Amino acid sequence: MADNKGAGTRSSSPLTKGDKAPEFSLPSDLGGTVGLKDFRGKKVVLYFYPKDNTSG
Hints:
By secondary structure, this protein is low in regular secondary structure. The chain has no helices and two strands. The protein has a two-stranded antiparallel sheet with strand order 1-2. It starts with 24 loop residues before the first strand and ends in a 21-residue tail after the last strand.
């Protein structure tokens, strides 16, 4: 098994519609870090670009 240090926590099963998202944080483009907890009580849309900035 590969070493995933620094890769974040991975769930043992994929999320399905209606599941709560796990807590995570990422670097902000404005500096610092932003996490899901920063938006608690607000509606959030998270869009993931799996191939952003790639030739795929």
